[in-house]
């Protein structure tokens, strides 16, 4: 316990309390961290995903320790983005997948969140799954009764569903070859480690003897040091420095995941990539024809912050005879520099327009032209950047 | 009937609208394809206006403003420049021909430059034919 906590260093940490360790994933570090923050009044609230079975989770802002303990453990088939649930109300700690953390940062740039008061406990993420396809997968591929599943986990490249009669594990590659598994936008996402958050936690790089009972934590900011120290001082967490080998192992997993994502990127984008430019226009006209103007994609987007007076709504007339809707044109334009590729728009679209793929097509070329990656730091979105004459 | 393109030209009040005026006063020949929209400053041109022009049926859009560092509002045409980059990528990714969109800095005295820009844009649009985003049916 003589180690000090420093920015940039990696640690192996776990919850001191045995029940917390049992409830949470990988040693209950994140749960213990949040409980300590609440009990020591380090934060006013925490934002957790309340579990509603294996296939559903509801984001909840709470200061009740009991609720935090009940929310412990990972939940892969509740693909919510927490960014829009954070409000400007006191200090908040929240677990954050990379896309949650990037969403919060984009909201902060748009003055919806006070970033100094939000403690982002980043979680390594290899992807999440949509509830309905997951239920179908459990039925068809795992041949289990979806209602009998008590928990799920992803371990060593395998997707495991536990029932009261035992567990059934299938390799993720195999699952995805058969068309099930992670959401499409997660498959080609290359941000697995939340380097923009305050802490980055996960089981990648945990040594064999502690695997399943400890978390690899990378401390990334001063805020991260504070919340970590708070939990250690309060006696909720024990930790030791991570070895070189652990860090290397973690990096290796990350780079494997990235390579895999790049392959998926090629696969997902190849259909539209292979079109000529005039066919591409015809494709866009064709897919956007299905839009029923429900506005869900705008409402769910963790980057958008205009509210009900947004330009995309103001410039849209439902009875115009345009070949493409102004709503989507304005959204594509405004998200070109800011789309973080979280996949929420595709997730909620009731007519299954591949919105995330389309937004990424526009965003990737603009972001690479600008050399700007949104959600990584507090840099102004380039669309609003004004180069002043000196 | 031969195809005659429709071109929307955004002109700023202080420079390029003056340039258009100079072109007229100087009796410089230019095709009657342009619909000029006067704005106080090119920085006022929201990229969405340009996209809407295309959806309304413009075959090409010309965005004009004061020369960089000559803006009446000091630095607003830097915004135009910035936003135009977004438009370029947008038009390209949508699959419209990049020649349908053009940015020109034209001062009030550059009547000839304005007339030439109109001529070139019209010529390009004639070659490309009607915009695929043109609305169908009776308008």
What does this structure look like?
The complex is a heterodimer of chains A (390) and B (139). Chain A is α/β, with parallel strands linked by helices and 390 residues long. Chain A has three domains: 10-129 and 187-253, no CATH class; 131-181, Nuclear Transport Factor 2, Chain: A (Roll), CATH 3.10.450; 275-370. Chain A is 38% helix and 16% strand. Chain A has helices spanning 18-23, 29-39, 65-70, 98-109, 131-140, 172-177, 184-187, 222-233, 244-273, 277-288, 296-300, 311-314, 326-335, 344-348, 355-370, and strands at residues 10-15, 45-51, 57-62, 92-96, 118-123, 149-155, 158-163, 166-171, 199-202, 215-219, 237-241. Chain A has an eight-stranded mixed beta sheet. In chain A, strands 6-7-8 form a three-stranded antiparallel beta sheet. Chain B is an alpha/beta fold and 139 residues long. Chain B has one domain (14-128). Chain B has helices spanning 16-25, 47-56, 76-94, 111-128, and strands at 7-12, 34-39, 60-65, 101-105. A four-stranded parallel beta sheet of chain B has the order 2-1-3-4, with helices on both faces. In chain B, α3 (76-94) links the parallel β3 and β4. In chain B, α1 (16-25) packs across α4 (111-128). The model of chain B has no long low-confidence stretch (mean pLDDT 94).
Which properties best describe this structure?
heterodimer, A: 390 residues, Nuclear Transport Factor 2, Chain: A, 3 domains, eight-stranded mixed beta sheet, 15 helices, 11 strands, globular, B: 139 residues, alpha/beta, 4 helices
Low-pLDDT stretches of chain B: none
What count of domains describes the coordinates of chain B?
Answer: 1
Discrete helix count of chain A:
15
Mean pLDDT over all positions of chain A = 90
Write down the secondary-structure element order of chain A.
EHHEEHEHEHEEEHHEEHEHHHHHHH
Q: Please report the two chains with the greatest interface, counting residues with C-beta closer than 8 angstroms to the partner's C-beta.
A: A-B, 37 and 32 residues
Helix content estimate of chain A: 25-40%
What's the main sheet of chain A like? Answer: 8 strands, mixed
